[in-house]
Amino acid sequence: MTKKLFLLPGDGIGPEAMAEVEKIIAWMNSALAAGFETETGLVGGSAYDAHGAAISDDDMARAMAADAVLFGAVGGPKWDGVAYEVRPEAGLLRLRKDMQLFANLRPAICYPALAASSSLKPEVVEGLDILIVRELTGGVYFGEPKEIIDLGNGQKRGIDTQVYDTFEIERISGVAFELARTRGNKVCSMEKHNVMKSGVLWKEVVAAYHKANYADVELTHMLADAGGMQLVRWPKQFDVIVTDNLFGDMLSDVAAMLTGSLGMLPSASLGAPDAISGKRKALYEPVHGSAPDIAGKGIANPIAMIASFAMCLRYSFNMVGEADMLDRAIANTLDKGLRTGDIMSDGCTQVGTSQMGDAVLAEFQALAG
Ligand code: IPM
Ligand code: MG
User: Which pTM does this prediction carry?
Assistant: First the structure.
């Protein structure tokens, strides 16, 4: 059976990182008869330059028809002045919304070889393995009204709306509880019920849904600000964290940096399983951005993009063995002392994007070939 992958490398370092994944796909097709079919489209600033939109309707349709989308990164100073509706980020937000990718999985794993690159003490981050489950299609990112209005007295008012319905909270907490059962069996839900009505409802719904369906999983609740503090104080207390779109955006950046570099972390954005085929729409992307300052220099870290492809193997194609081997290949490459500039430390060998990609592929070939 063919597996349709739609590649959206995007802007900045996105295309360089994606090129390393394409090498892995090509090898899996020729050596493992994996049957991946790839098509490539434009998103972000590069789509704006070509079509005047952050993603064209045609590429949007191809994303909807694919088994999985691999996404690089969007944005850069070149597009700072473009209209809000067509800014690079609008392409990513449209993909999330139109594909209904409500569940964003952001694992923060500290590779042993990198414990020293974290800004925290090695004993705080060594062996860290947490998973942030971020709600991705609701909350203040998409709530209406969302506008700037003129008050007519020389003042303007900017409005965003934080809004959550019961079903949205239930389905994202269901994903978190299910995943917790496959790992440490603990979920911590984060909101701000002390100041926000949406937080009061979030906490109530998570607690009721837990009681009715997942009483075997350990559930705790934390205010999101305290959660941020606990993440940098003692992150290993957490297993799975479930939180809303905006808190998840911030907390996942904090969690990412615990591991040494934003250049290491993958993510998966999943929709609900289709009623008939059981398949989920899915998009996989590194947590890092387009890093315009280093784009085109061949020095970007491709590991987050490669690890995102490993998540794609795991969640979209149930290729768990291959996913495990690819993750192991990344760890082995780091164990051998290879580092891109962002994770470089004393005594290691600094390499560029394609050397890092080649080294991971070679380790993967040794494990899977
Ligand atoms: C992320 C990013 C996006 C977000 C931006 C690029 C719109 O920060 O995926 O975390 O805010 O969700
Ligand atoms: Mg973010």
Answer: 0.95
**Which among 277, 333, 268, 255 has a CA at the least distance from the CA of 301?**
333
- With contact defined as beta carbons under 8 Å apart, do 221 and 201 qualify? no
- Going by alpha carbons, the residue nearest to atom 6 of ligand 1 is 89
Atom of ligand 1 nearest to the CA of 93: 7
Nearest CA to ligand 1 atom 10: 249
Residues 269 and 253 in one domain: no
Q: Whose CA is nearest to atom 4 of ligand 1?
A: 249
DSSP 62: H
What range defines the domain where residue 178 resides? Answer: 129-258
The residue ranges of the chain whose pLDDT is under 50 are none
Residue 112 belongs to some domain of the structure: no
**pLDDT > 90: percent of the chain:** 92
Q: Ligand 2 mean position to 130 CA, how many Å? A: 17
Q: Are residues 82 and 32 in the same domain?
A: yes
Task: Give the separation between CA 81 and CA 7, rounded to whole angstroms.
Answer: 26
Q: How confident is the model over 53-99, as pLDDT tens digits?
A: 999 999 999 999 999 999 999 999 999 999 999 999 999 999 999 99
Query: How far does residue 163's CA lie from ligand 2's centre (Å)?
Result: 19
Helix, coil or strand: residue 317: coil
C-alpha of residue 289 to centroid of ligand 1, in Å: 8
Q: How many domains does one find in the chain? A: 2
Same domain, 273 and 357: yes
Same domain, 138 and 253: yes
Q: Are residues 328 and 365 in the same domain?
A: yes
With contact defined as beta carbons under 8 Å apart, do 62 and 41 qualify? Answer: yes
| pLDDT tens, position by position, 157-168 | 999 999 999 999
Model pLDDT, residue 153: 97
Query: Quick one: which atom of ligand 1 is closest to the CA of 104?
Result: 9
- Domain boundary among the residues 258, 292, 326 is at 258
